[in-house]
């Protein structure tokens, strides 16, 4: 058995004649926290979306937890249950309460009965610092609170890996810290994570590895201190000069 959670080899993704992933190799070990950085349009979101088949790869192989997700025999719904995803826009169901949002998937997919799902939802809300919001409606929450509910909702499926696509980019600056704290706690607890973010402080503090992408390629990767203090590639240097 391999201890790789994610094993992507030579992944290519075309939209028509536009090749946005040009042969990506991307590995994530069990319990590893990988921060993915790069200019807008470099293919970061497309890579994340390929990992749970929100996008169909054009070619290449994607193995998650030993299961080849491009193999038609692989049950993609089952595979997805183990992959939590948090987006820039939280996509909460506005007609459901916070508690109902978190309970929905585990109950619908038969992972838990209502009582179990409620107990889990309450525990998760405590973890994300929103213990008093079980009955609240999403519209009454701030952006940062909504995003923490979205994280709790993803965790309710008890995933093996969490994918974050710019989870703090749509938030007012004063909300960013609380969301990053929740993510730091998850990392400390050993969650395997892939995080696309422009929060370089988070990357320095939490990432085991930083991967820099540009124009559909992985250009450079390494320990955060190596990438931030001693980048080797000119494109990495140019990007970091702009964002730091
Ligand atoms: P990033 O997340 O790094 O900003 P994306 O993965 O969102 O980059 O996009 C990479 C490229 O793919 C961009 O040029 C974008 O316009 C293109 N792209 C992304 N999604 C689609 C789509 N559904 N259809 C066509 N082109 C797309
Ligand atoms: Mg993106």
From TrEMBL:
What InterPro entries does its record include?
Answer: AAA+_ATPase, ABC_ATPase_HisP-typ, ABC_transporter-like_ATP-bd, ABC_transporter-like_CS, MetN_ABC_transporter-like, P-loop_NTPase
Q: Which keywords describe this protein according to UniProt?
A: ATP-binding, Nucleotide-binding, Transport
Alphabetical list of CDD domains matching this protein = ABC_HisP_GlnQ
Asked if Zinc is a keyword of the record, the answer is no
Q: Which domain of life is it from?
A: Bacteria
Name all ABC transporter domain ranges: 6-240
Q: Which PROSITE patterns match?
A: ABC_TRANSPORTER_1 (PS00211), ABC_TRANSPORTER_2 (PS50893)
Please give the name of this protein: Ectoine/hydroxyectoine ABC transporter, ATP-binding protein EhuA, ehuA
